[in-house]
Amino acid sequence: MSSRPLTELPESGLLWLINRSVFHPRGLALALDLDEHGHVHGWQLLQAAPGEPFEFTDDVDRAGFQRAEATLLAVREEATARG
């Protein structure tokens, strides 16, 4: 797979997957800092309020899962096609 811009992390579902799997269980969230043009110029780790986990709504979870699965499937298919 070719290099992709960081701005695609949310729409690819991979930011959801990283947060859901790695950061949210630890009370953290990875957030991208965007400029006024939508370009990523940095990132930060956000911490939930004490005793409060980061959670997605069911709709956001479903959509994030579907986007992440589609992205991962596309990568696997591309690798298979290349042989």
TrEMBL record:
Highest taxon of the lineage: Bacteria
Record-given protein name: Uncharacterized protein
